[in-house]
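Hello support,

Our group uses your service weekly, and this is the first time we've seen a run hang past the timeout. The protein is YbjN domain-containing protein. I'm not sure whether the cause is the sequence or the server load. Input pasted verbatim:
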Amino acid sequence: MSELSNPHLAEAGLLDEPTTADLHAKVTEAWREFARALAAALPTLPVGTELELALDPTASGTGSAVYGVSVECVEDGSLQARAVSNANLPEGFRLERTAIAAMVALGWSPPGVLAGSRENFGTTGAADALAGMITRTLRDVYGAPHPAFLVYEAHDREEEPVAIEPLGTARHESTVDAFLPSIDSLDASGLDLADRVRIVVSAMLKSDPDELQVDGDGDIGIRAGSAMVFVRVRENPPLIDVFSPVLTEIEPTEKLFVKLSDLTNRMPIGRLYCTAGTVWASIPVFGRDFQASHLALAIQVMTGLADELDDRLHGEFGGKRFFGEGDKSAASTPEARIGQYL
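Update from on-call engineer: The timeout came from a worker crash unrelated to the input. Re-ran successfully.
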C-alpha cells in the first residue's frame, strides 16, 4: 500500500510531511515550468537579441567548464540556437560519445554545420520546439540537476541588457551578486509569514524577493553542495519547515535507523528519519513571533548539515544524493543517465 492511500497516515496528519512529497515530481515540474517560460520568452526577443543560458559553474562545481546554450533572434525574425561543444570545454569536462550522440538525436547539427554556429552545435526552429530541445539539453546532456542552478541573461549586439520575463526558477545574471539588506533588518511588521520568509531566503540567496520562484507545492529550493534544501511555509499552525532529502533510493536497515537515531540525538535542533526509501533531515522554525534570524540560522544549519550528511551516509549506506553524479542505489541498473558522463 502506498503512503498516499494509507488511511492511518491521513489520520495521523502525516500526508503534509515533506516525506510524502514526490521528489521526482517536484523536480520534473520545475523543469516543465522552465520550459514553458522559455517557450513564452523566445518569441518576444527583439531582432539582434541573444539569450544566453548556462549551468552556473559555481553552483555545479564545474569550475572553468561552462555548459551553455544561446538563442539569437536574427534579421528575418527567426531563432537560431547554439550549444557548447568540446571545442570550448576543458579537458576532463568534454562530452563523451554518448552525450554527443544524444545532442544529435535531440536535433542539434554537429559543430560548424549550421552557418554561424562556429565551433558550437547549432539548430533553428520554432520557439516551442527550441524550448523543449534546450531544456532537455541542459538537463539530460549537460547535467543540470534543477533549473534553479541555471543563470541567464539577454543582450543586444552592443552587449546592452534586454529585459525578458523570468524563466521559472532559473536566476537572472543581474541577481547573482545583487545587494540586499542584512538579515537583521528584515523583521518588518505588516507582512504575512510567507512574505517574510521569501524576503529572508532571497537575502540569503542574493536575489530579488519579487523574482524568487517557488515550485508547485510552494516550496523554495536552495542548493547546498550535493544536497537540496527546501523551505515550506505552513499557515495553521504558523510554522516554517526547513527540510532536505539527504539520500534517496536507500535500503532501510536496522543499522541505518540506529545511525539516524544516534545522529538525531546529537543534533541541537531538528531530526533525521527514513521513510519510503528516503532519508530526510528537518528543522522546524516557529512562525508565531517570527524572527528572521531564527530562519536564517535554520537554513544555514540545514545547508551545511545536508551537504555533509549526504556524503557521510552515502559512503556508509549507499543510496543517491540529490546532486550526486554517478551515485547508484541498491536498485540501480547498469543503464546510466547521459548527464552522468559530464
